[in-house]
Amino acid sequence: MEKNFQRQTWEDEFGKEYLQRNIYTPKHLDEFYKNRYTLSRTDLNNRFLKNINKDAKILEVGTNIGNQLLHLQNMGFENLYGIEIQERAINFAKKRADNLNIIKGDALDIPFKDAYFDLVFTSGVLIHISPDNINFAIDEIYRVTNSYIWGFEYYAEEYTDLMYQGNKDLMWKADFMKLYKERKKDLVKLDELKVSYNDDKNLIDQMFLLQK
């Protein structure tokens, strides 16, 4: 896997500091979402996953310490997998719950065979992949799902470079659903929701569900 600037940064102390700032139980994750959007993560998941079987094989790309996977497990989903580039985050996640299959892996080179999963998702991960590499991530996510792609990312009509923790080239916002659909013509939009922040209505995040 290529040691690009973004990956190297996340594997260093920067990633460790992120881990320490973002430890949430399912209950605390819901509270965080309610404070930010009014809607809880449970509200969003119930809307977008209402037709997904609880035994569906699900992969999270960029799982970090497993906040989202733990939340899905708490909702009754059983076959949960994750890939993550930080060894410390993987080790931390494995201590938090049983039956989470988290291994080291990169969004640009997902270590699973074609169409292995029923649903593949990201949550605040595509925003950290350079525009130079985003198509590699889209191709890999598309390759390993047999049906659904689910995303929740910062939204902007055009690719926009953001400062992140005082650093450049670590965060972008875009219309990621549009990027998927432009690159993979067979993807069909099943649902989309844009949610603004309670403390700044100009900031918008986008959740979407696509199907092959």
Report helical residue fraction.
25-40%
Mean pLDDT, as a whole number?
A: 91
Q: Which radius of gyration do the C-alpha atoms yield?
A: 16 Å
Q: What is the chain-wise order of helices and strands?
A: HHHHEHEHEEHEEEHEE
Description:
The chain is 34% helix and 32% strand. It is of the alpha/beta class and 212 residues long. It has a 7-stranded mixed beta sheet with strand order 3-2-1-4-5-9-8, with helices on both faces. Helix 7 links the parallel strand 4 and strand 5. The chain has 8 helices and 9 strands. The chain has helices spanning 5-11, 13-21, 26-37, 41-48, 67-74, 87-96, 134-144, 176-183; strands spanning 57-61, 79-84, 100-104, 117-123, 145-154, 160-164, 167-173, 188-197, 200-211. The mean pLDDT is 91.
Question: What's this entry about, in short?
Answer:
The longest helix has 12 residues. Helices cover 34% and strands 32% of the residues. The two termini are 27 Å apart.
Give descriptors for this structure.
212 residues; 8 helices; alpha/beta
Fold blueprint:
Layout: H1 5-11, H2 13-21, H3 26-37, H4 41-48, E1 57-61, H5 67-74, E2 79-84, H6 87-96, E3 100-104, E4 117-123, H7 134-144, E5 145-154, E6 160-164, E7 167-173, H8 176-183, E8 188-197, E9 200-211
Parallel strand pairs: 1-2, 1-4, 2-3, 4-5
Antiparallel strand pairs: 5-9, 6-7, 8-9
Organism: Malaciobacter canalis
InterPro entries: Methyltransf_11, Pseudamin_synth-assoc_MeTrfase, SAM-dependent_MTases_sf
Domain Methyltransferase type: 59-145
